[in-house]
Amino acid sequence: MKNKTLLIIILSIIVVFIITAIVLTGVIINKAINDNHERENTINEEKEAAIEEFDNRIAYRSTNNYTYHNSTNEISYIDNTTDHNSLTLNDTAGWRATIKDLTVEGRIEIPKTQLDVAVLDKVTIEALKDAVGIVYGPGVNKVGNTIIMGNSNNENDFFFDNQKIELGDEIFLTDIETHTKIKYVVYNKYIASSTSFDYASRDTGGKREITLVSSVNDNNRLIIWAKEEQ
User: What secondary structure, in 3-state letters, does the chain show?
Assistant: First the structure.
């Protein structure tokens, strides 16, 4: 009788243990699924926000006859002790540079289109008159895919001539803080719909890459991929 009772107790403990393990496993799996969904939702929200920002930018049609700034002397410098009015981007290490209150991360040079202009950490309609900006990604010369956006609606816009860029062309990015200049080589060019943002989250395999984005029309974008020359 005692043995039977002991056996029942042992079996009950085993059953409780199994049920507990199943419940805990379910909780862990459910949490992992929820965490993954949250990450996906965050990424999707970031993508949607970036697309909306981009659409807002390219929807702007300039009515002003502003000058094409083919230099970076439009940059202002924040420092109370030294006059930096004559400095160029190459002289700005250690100084905070801004354009229209946005921070300058560096400069982009595209020999094919004779472009040499500042790259901002963000974009606004007004700032895009004087520079191009990062709309998504880690930043100038950082590992991963950095998306740089520029206006292209008229001949005064910085990315207006991007359609001339071909596979194999060179693009140079310089970090304003370290003055590190890296050469990128174009390896992909295509037209994407305004609702597509797949190019933003592509895996670069731990390498530096950039994506140039400009408008073709209200419904399409010109996408250019370039990777660091090894």
Answer: CHHHHHHHHHHHHHHHHHHHHHHHHHHHHHHHHHHHHHHHHHHHHHHHHHHHHHHHHHCCCCCCCCCCCCCCCCCEEECCCCCCCCCCHHHCCCCEEEECCEEEEEEEEEHHHCEEEEEECCCCCCHHHCCEEEEECCCCCCCEEEEEECCCCCCCCCCHHHHHCCCCCEEEEEECCCCCEEEEEEEEEEEEECCCCHHHHCCCCCCEEEEEEEEEECCEEEEEEEEECC
